[in-house]
Amino acid sequence: xxxxxxxxxxxxxxxxxxxxxxAVARRNLIMIVLGVEIMLNAASIAFIGAAARWxxxxxxxxxxFILAVAATEVSIGLAIIVYAFRxxxxxxxxxxxxxxxxxxxxxxxxxxxx
Length: 114
Hints:
mainly alpha; Helix Hairpins
């Protein structure tokens, strides 16, 4: 039984919407990263459905690229989250001022060059 292309796009759209909700509505950095991963998987489902619909390999090639981007995003994102948690003790994005240049420079000036 072949799944209609409209159903595949409906599933991908629902997953993408769920990922957007998870990334926007939560106040937790891990949930934000999880929401972005759900959105990338929804895009992968849409590309696979389109590749099956039009019998082309480009959709599958895009999925491999998306998987590489997702793996990179998870590894770098979780490393940043672990660093930020060790520094502040919280997963709440509102608690972070780590991206301000002044904060980094003040921290460097207090410690001095190493």
